[in-house]
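Q: what does this look like with heme C bound?
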Amino acid sequence: MKVRKPSMKHYAATLVAAASVLGIALGLAELGISADADPAVECPGVGKPESQYMGADSCALCHTKGDAARAPSKLATLDEFSIWDHRDKHRIAFKSLQSPRALAMEPLLGMNPGDAAKNRQCLACHAINLTDKSAGATLAGDEKSQRAAVAQGVSCEACHGRSSLWIDRHWKKGEWSGLKPPLAEQRYDQYGMANLRDPVRRTELCLSCHLGNIACGKFVTHDMFAAGHPPLPAFETEAFLEQMPPHWQPVPPLSRTRSVALEGLVALRASVRMLADANRLPGGQAGDFAIYDCAACHHELQIPSSRQLPGHFGGAPGRPPLRSANIVLATAAIGPQSTSDGRITPSPLDAAMARLQTATRGRPFGEPQAIEAAATAVISQLDEAIMNVQGKPLADQNPRHVIEQLCRAGAATALDYESAWQLTGSLRAVVSDWQQLAAAKGSAKFDPKIQSSIEELSELVHFPSPPESSTAPRPANRGTLWENGADFDSEQFRKKLGEIVKLLDSR
Ligand code: HEC
Ligand code: HEC
Ligand code: HEC
Ligand code: HEC
Ligand code: HEC
């Protein structure tokens, strides 16, 4: 396990006044957090410290036309650039910094017109981040090509890692291509290509932008939200991978089931790390409202209210709790424990999470030392659970069992819209795995009733339909995902989950 040593110096750093490689003027506003990655932390999808960006156009040379003969290992179809260019929202992420919404945010954040597209904190998530000086993240080429590369938004190397050390060798036979594990994995580490087939690393990468990663300089502060940044919808890796859309080969049966088990744990770990990192920020940053449950403050007042029911206020009444998203999937992945005499007890994670909730609510925005201790305990529980899943062979994954665990965990909690949405995404992935497996084995074990129940759940949360194909045009930006939750009925959803459990039990 990697030891993280967050340095106070890093957090205290204000925007470095140095002109960037691009020679662009930095946004004048200090938006509350350093956009430089902490050098002590290995940030996902970054690559070797000494490596440079080459830009997506250099990948386009080989990854555009789809040339199966040139891709002997069958990992790549060599049309990845086309899919990303025409279909993937990441391609337009930089353009969004010049959209009417971004322009409206600028004066509220104290920026000059046009500065969002030059601001280090925005670029950290909306492009390859050439302004991150701490990582030596420069791009080969002149200033014009640098500007062009940034304007391509979240491009290949924002996920696969800076490529100067591997671009000339990652397709060579003998040296890289066709290597069997673990040799292939060693190449990734040696040259800094991100291993995105590893569900843990992949999920950490996505979450670094879709949830945030303070130590890596990526954080949507409450100031940004209040100025107009759209809320970041709860992230469920399998659903988001499907929506991207994929520019990779379908994964083998059972690996999505295994991914689901890991992704929930990784997401909860990332969100608890955010809290712990924010807690260490000087100057009261621990109170950044963006760490907490948005709906805790942003709801209509009601008396009596469901919030006044027993058990809702973990510490004391009226203090913002953590965001509830990510908790159910992790709970489902660990599951209740049964003791030797057959009693069912809550998992150690539940107890550790309860202590964390109390620590954040003991006083408004929590008691820093208690948060530090409780967060550390939760993170080590999750580290252990992740290692347990990783240690199990793929063949041990049982989709039926995972579906049951997910449904039971969901039915047992006061599910909010976002958690229900995440649960649905995970269920859909596992069910498709089960179906695939049943089809491959030619066994009739898969029950189509399960499939239709999951479709009904999907309707209850307005789950988006998967893209028709990887070449269909890029859909309009959703923007309003949150509004979809307005008619969400938790009782109805949980009843449906209970029915699925019964259905599974009956066969
Ligand atoms: C000179 C041609 C060429 C260039 C330039 C190139 N690639 Fe590739 N790449 C290939 C080929 C060919 C394969 C497939 C190799 C195989 O099938 O064994 C491949 C495979 C890959 C893989 C899978 C490798 C693995 O082992 O998992 C990734 C990821 C990838 N390329 C990303 C990129 C990115 C990102 C860029 C730009 C920074 C890029 N490539 C530039 C030719 C190229
Ligand atoms: C470097 C930051 C970054 C990383 C890493 C990243 N994303 Fe994104 N993603 C974004 C941004 C920014 C947008 C919004 C783009 C826009 O519309 O302007 C986005 C949009 C998306 C969307 C479209 C959402 C919508 O509103 O329709 C999907 C799906 C998505 N990302 C999936 C993923 C997945 C899956 C991963 C991990 C494999 C990932 N992202 C990694 C920054 C990132
Ligand atoms: C922690 C990463 C992160 C940071 C920092 C960040 N964003 Fe975003 N932003 C995202 C993601 C992810 C989305 C897409 C959310 C979704 O719909 O799934 C997004 C969406 C947007 C959108 C809406 C795009 C659309 O049309 O739907 C705008 C505008 C935007 N961001 C502007 C900004 C500006 C301006 C800044 C700097 C002040 C900024 N962002 C900082 C991650 C980030
Ligand atoms: C938002 C993150 C993201 C961006 C941007 C992105 N990729 Fe990927 N890419 C992934 C993920 C995640 C996978 C692997 C998923 C899996 O196998 O489960 C992948 C897989 C691949 C593969 C197949 C090898 C493999 O490991 O499955 C190739 C080749 C590839 N990407 C090339 C590119 C190229 C070229 C670009 C730019 C045009 C690009 N990618 C942009 C996330 C990204
Ligand atoms: C601890 C309480 C608290 C939490 C938690 C919180 N906010 Fe706020 N929010 C506020 C306050 C106070 C304002 C300022 C209201 C005003 O000026 O009238 C505000 C303003 C806003 C605004 C400006 C528009 C409006 O209707 O007030 C937006 C948008 C917003 N918050 C989004 C979010 C999002 C997204 C989250 C979760 C990531 C969040 N908030 C979490 C307290 C909170």
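Confidence is low (pLDDT under 50) at residues 1-29. Residues 45, 89-90, 92-93, 96, 125-126, 154, 158-159, 202, 205-206, 208-210, 240-241, 243-244, 477-478 surround heme C (ligand 2) (CB under 6 Å).
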